[in-house]
Design goal:
about 160 residues, 4 helices, alpha/beta, about 25% helix, seven-stranded mixed sheet
Length: about 160
Amino acid sequence: MGIGRSNKFQSESVEYSTPLALFRPLATEFHLQRDVCASPTNAKLPAYWTENDDALTKSWTENCWMNPPFNRQLRKWVKKAHDEALKHKSTIVCLVPVRSNTKWWNDTVVDAEIRFINGEVNFSDLDRGLWLPMCILIFGSKAKRGHFGFINYRQHRRAK
């Protein structure tokens, strides 16, 4: 349960659609071609894989977007993004919660560019944003490995 009296993020699902205001600039910058964690209702790109396609078993040879489920499998998704970007020399851009207290974070982000998100990300265009600290991890050929920066999502939220 969240902080306060009601939790707006209670759900039977861990699927939340990425806000287009966050996705579009990244898609343009990195020429993203495939959404690896999508459903027909929340896919951000014409080419996408669903849960039934099981992207963890596929080769990610294109520049990919990943907004994975924020569950116990998160480490597997980030490790897959890391490994596939190195293997195929592609660029993989990931929207994930900051998990700097974990081993998988320590093992993977050394090869990433990190853009911390300032502000609450409003998944599925909900009025209220998710209070978790979030970031964009960029792996692969277009990543500025070892660099970090910030995305001012608060500014976008005020502009709405």
